[in-house]
Amino acid sequence: MNSWSFPSQSPTDTRRLGELIGTNAQPGTVISLVGNLGAGKTQLSAAIAAGLGIDPAEVSSPTFMLIQEYEGRLPLFHFDTYRLKDIHEFEDLGVEEYFYGDGVCLVEWGDRFPELLPPDLLRIAIDICGETERQFELTSSGPFSDQLLDTLRAEN
Amino acid sequence: MTTSRLLLAIESSCDETAAAVIREDGTVLSNIVASQAALHEKFGGVVPEVASRAHLERILPVIDDTLKAANHKLTELSAIAVMTEPGLVGSLLVGLTAAKSLSWSLGIPLIPLNHIEAHIYACEMQASETIFPCVGFVVSGGHSNLYDCRSATDFQLLGSTIDDAAGEAFDKVARILDLPYPGGPSVARLAETGDPAAIGFPRPLLHDKRLAFSFSGLKTAVMYEAFGVPGSHKSVPELTEQRRADIAASFQAAVVDVLVGKCEQALHHTGHKTLCVGGGVACNQLLRERLQRSSTKRGYRLELAPGDLCTDNAAMGAIAWRLFESGKFADWNLDVTPGLVRAGD
């Protein structure tokens, strides 16, 4: 378990962090996004998509559709648990097949059903510090995500 | 006894499982949506809203009930139509598989439908003369899409949201203001007692050349207005009942301004003289009134989808007859297209 703080003064900083993550994501990378409404989860997601070679303008909130898929350097599966009532509804989406597949998985509101997420993942908690200021806390929880976190820190 | 042909339309793109029997002249003989109380009862309680497993359990009873209500048999059908895009993969697949099985076993054509185009076609179903060509606008929890609709078989996407859909913004603002789901009706109800001019919320992209929407920042502005900007020393007024109503009314006014403005922009852009609006948010009373006023002032024809066809249903699958006429049938390779096709794709 490892952690790294990334302070962001503006959406531009957030974009830089997201692109860094997208560029370095590997097949099987799972990222859990945690933060209140308005924290910028979808904005960070769009930047991660950009880092994977996906047009960020194509990335919209997955709240309604629950899962959105995008084709980039690696496939990106963008989930949102916001609208789900219980863990069974999340399970019924067939999420495990995605989590243990070859794409990159991004789960907004990832802390709602942590027991379904793989143990080795990158958790990103977003704190709202001001109108445009955000604090990103990145935490890894296994050898695979440790390596990603180390790369992010080194490349930043 | 009528000799007019019949088709069965199936809808399972999101939360609702629905089927309808529709006559060739467009008459809807029956229209069953499985979020209705009777069906909840049949399955002993509240049906899970999202899982494709729920669709799986409901789809055959829904089809049976629909045929029974129409007083017709499967063997009397001339075609099967099914929504194949956009929506949830698993949910769409349940409808598609049922449709393929029926079409194959009955030896009748299979017609793929686009859920959003069908929402626009809902306006055609009650219009006294054809709506085409027109600007079509589908505004709901999942979509805020503008189309250039040249005919029932030719829809071109003009623009959509770059983050949250309009209905989604209502849902999230409802959450912020501690109002029940679905957010559209509950925010609108609270807004009735509020002052729409109390807070000058942003009108995102209203004066932008692009036919695009963005409601994520507006939602954040509402949160800051309700609870203050984190880290800021500026205090916000206490969140009294009146204050909540003012926020709701001001938020709704901002969303409606943008929706109406973008419709006007799309009409100007295409040169069409008719605007058709469907989807769940089209039930919003303020939006309906503002569109009526805009239509009178600017001299275009406005067609609003009837209330029961604004939310998800299979009756709007009546568009299938238009595709039938043009021979737009699918083969067994037909697949679902869960994601949205974007403008310019």
Explained architecture:
- Chain A has a single domain (2-118, 126-155), classed as Rossmann fold.
- Helices cover 31% and strands 27% of the residues of chain A.
- Chain A has helices at 11-24, 41-51, 87-92, 95-99, 143-155; strands at residues 2-8, 30-34, 67-71, 75-80, 104-108, 122-128, 134-140.
- The mean pLDDT of chain A is 92.
- In chain B, the strands form 2 sheets. Chain B has a 5-stranded mixed β-sheet with strand order 3-2-1-4-5, sandwiched between helices. A 5-stranded mixed β-sheet of chain B has the order 8-7-6-9-10, sandwiched between helices.
- Chain B is of the alpha/beta class and 345 residues long.
- Chain B is built from 11 helices and 10 strands.
- Chain B is globular.
- Chain B starts with 5 loop residues before the first strand and ends in a 20-residue tail after the last helix.
- Chain B has helices at 37-42, 52-70, 89-106, 115-124, 166-176, 183-191, 216-227, 241-270, 285-298, 307-310, 319-325; strands at 6-11, 18-23, 28-33, 77-85, 110-114, 134-139, 144-151, 154-159, 274-278, 301-304.
- Chain B folds into 2 domains: 6-120 and 310-325, 2-Layer Sandwich (Nucleotidyltransferase, domain 5); 130-304, ATPase, nucleotide binding domain (Nucleotidyltransferase, domain 5, 2-Layer Sandwich), CATH 3.30.420.40.
- The chains are: A alpha/beta (156), B alpha/beta (345).
- Chain A binds chain B through residues 36-38, 42-43, 57-58, 60-61, 63-70, 83-85, 88-89, 92-94, 127-131, 133, and chain B through 14, 48-53, 86-90, 141-142, 160-165, 167-168, 171-172, 175-176, 216, 219-220, 223-224, 229-232, 338-340, 342.
